[in-house]
Backbone:
């Protein structure tokens, strides 16, 4: 088939909501867009382990410690599924990792903010995982099959993440004066960065239109952001805490909450690498990679030796057999 | 006083698991590859899970012995000082490089398998129940760590050098494993004869040496100075720092719900 016919077949599948499998023909740009999006998503899961891992050793009870460890471990699993999904597009995990460590690939800016108190574990679960869920639920229906399958698995775990975060905040909000202040302080610091997680305004988002046409994305940044704000504005009431936005107000006409102006200068400066923890996060990833090199090398050397051994033993048996013959 | 012995023995097991899990959880997010990050985190989860069950039983014992003491798994874990901790010293040692951490797991898991393997026959139901669950977990830790000890010992020249160094550092801490404290006997094991601990030690030695030989590592000289005292509350300098970090919130904001 010529490219034109293949393109036509592809367009029809997209039109009819038939998922694209890795072996199917796809436009080069579609592949490129997916590699960029999925690998960026995978990197976010991995770098995203760091801010919460920062509190594992200081979790206040054994139960909280277990839940937090399991949660951070889930994120490692998410990274793994996503790297595997991206690998079906003909890029290796090593190549993707190289792009992350060299600074070529991006990850979600939210993880460049510091975790300063225990309440940040609550705020991250509630807001950051909450925003992730809103982003990810539509991705379960994304047009590329392996990505969609990965997202279905991931979404199941994300709702537990959000719940445990909300639980932490709820406990703090009902606790001592200091605990309540701790919870409010965490929401104050995490609110705006979480709102920014949905990316630039639709007008400033160059890839959105094409991604929506390909049904990689199902909703625009601004639509998802609105959904998130509506959800949080209601949930914060139960906590008895406040969202740090004086302009947050229910708009009866729109049937949505209005909200204040986002600080886009801050957004772009964190994206460009000047956030409070960009350097810490990258150096932690680079250190893990470098310190792990001898382990990976040893595992490879050992596997090669084992291979050689089993090969030479089959060689011996085969020579024996031929001699007997 | 039999209950006091059971209480202290339970703490010894629980503290060893908790401190080990606490240390291993420092790896989460920093492992050499994703799969290994997940694997070592699993072991940390198992260890802390075991500790919880044991502390719950310990709290029950304590509340029975001292009515009104309101002990919970968390008061025991978070409100004792280093000298009350009875963990084996090896669990509090720093993680070091990946090889040292793997070898720590290897030694401890082999000890736990011996211990839990006997404890499943204990007449104390709470302990035998925990042992039954834990035995499955540590059997997996034994297998996983043995595989990695072989791989790293018999991998590259660098990996072997690192493993040999880790072995020399950790070996002296294995001596206290099978030297029973007074509280380790009474009522805990049924039919525990004179050679009870000797047998466990022999079993441990045999299994451990086999893997170390396969990994082409050399056991340190037997006259190496041996470290001990963890089981009665004598620790290295490392434990105090570990506890300061682990107990920080409970100490800074006493009496709160979390
Ligand atoms: Fe995730
Ligand atoms: Fe999550």
Residues:
């Amino acid at each position: 088939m010529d490219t034109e016919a293949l393109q036509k077949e592809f367009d029809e599948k997209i039109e009819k909501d038939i998922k694209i499998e890795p072996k199917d023909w796809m436009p080069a740009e579609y592949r490129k867009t997916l590699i960029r999006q999925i690998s960026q998503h995978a990197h976010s899961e991995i770098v995203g382990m760091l801010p919460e891992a920062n509190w594992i050793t200081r979790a206040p009870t054994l139960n909280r410690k277990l839940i937090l460890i399991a949660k951070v471990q889930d994120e490692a699993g998410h990274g793994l599924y996503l790297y595997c999904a991206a690998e079906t597009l003909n890029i290796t995990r090593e190549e993707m990792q190289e792009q992350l460590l060299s600074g070529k690939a991006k990850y979600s800016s939210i993880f460049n903010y510091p975790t300063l108190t225990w309440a940040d574990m609550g705020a991250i679960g509630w807001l950051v995982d909450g925003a992730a869920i809103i982003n990810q639920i539509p991705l379960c229906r994304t047009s590329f099959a392996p990505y969609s399958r990965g997202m279905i698995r991931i979404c199941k775990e994300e709702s537990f993440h959000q719940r445990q975060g909300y639980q932490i905040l709820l406990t703090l909000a009902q606790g001592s004066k200091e605990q309540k202040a701790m919870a409010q302080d965490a929401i104050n610091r995490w609110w705006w960065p979480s709102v920014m997680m949905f990316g630039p305004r639709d007008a400033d988002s160059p890839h959105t239109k094409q991604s929506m046409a390909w049904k990689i994305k199902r909703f625009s940044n601004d639509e998802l952001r609105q959904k998130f704000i509506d959800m949080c504005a209601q949930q914060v009431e139960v906590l008895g805490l406040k969202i740090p936005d004086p302009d947050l107000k229910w708009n009866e006409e729109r049937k949505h909450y209005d909200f204040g102006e986002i600080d886009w200068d801050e957004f772009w400066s964190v994206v460009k690498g000047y956030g409070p923890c960009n350097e810490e996060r990258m150096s932690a990833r680079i250190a893990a990679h470098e310190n792990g090199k001898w382990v990976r090398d040893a595992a490879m050397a050992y596997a090669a030796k084992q291979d050689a051994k089993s090969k030479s033993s089959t060689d011996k048996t085969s020579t024996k057999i031929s001699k007997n013959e | 006083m039999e209950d006091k012995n059971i209480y202290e023995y339970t703490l010894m097991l629980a503290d060893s698991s908790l401190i080990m899990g606490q240390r291993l959880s420092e790896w989460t997010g920093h492992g050499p590859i994703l799969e290994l990050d997940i694997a070592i985190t699993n072991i940390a989860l198992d260890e802390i899970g075991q500790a919880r069950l044991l502390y719950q039983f310990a709290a029950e014992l304590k509340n029975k012995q001292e009515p009104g003491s309101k002990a919970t798994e968390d008061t025991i874990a978070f409100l004792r000082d280093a000298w009350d901790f009875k963990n084996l010293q090896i669990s509090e040692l720093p993680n070091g490089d990946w090889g040292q951490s793997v070898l720590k797991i290897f030694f401890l898991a082999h000890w736990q398998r011996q211990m839990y393997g006997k404890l499943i026959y204990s007449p104390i139901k709470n302990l035998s129940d925990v042992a039954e669950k834990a035995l499955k977990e540590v059997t997996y830790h034994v297998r996983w760590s043995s595989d990695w000890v072989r791989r790293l010992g018999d991998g590259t020249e660098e990996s072997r050098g690192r493993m040999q160094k880790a072995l020399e550092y950790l070996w002296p801490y294995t001596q206290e494993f099978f030297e029973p404290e007074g509280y380790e006997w009474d009522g805990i094991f049924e039919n525990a004869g004179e050679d009870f601990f000797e047998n466990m030690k022999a079993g441990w030695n045999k299994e451990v040496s086999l893997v170390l030989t396969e990994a082409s590592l050399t056991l340190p000289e037997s006259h190496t100075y041996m470290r001990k005292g963890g089981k009665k509350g004598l620790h290295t300098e490392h434990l105090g720092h570990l506890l300061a970090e682990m107990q920080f919130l409970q100490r800074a904001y006493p009496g709160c719900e979390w």
About this structure: Chain B has a mean pLDDT of 95. Residues 3-252 of chain B form a domain with the Ferritin fold (CATH 1.20.1260.10). Chain B has one domain: 3-252. The two ends of chain B are 35 Å apart (CA to CA).
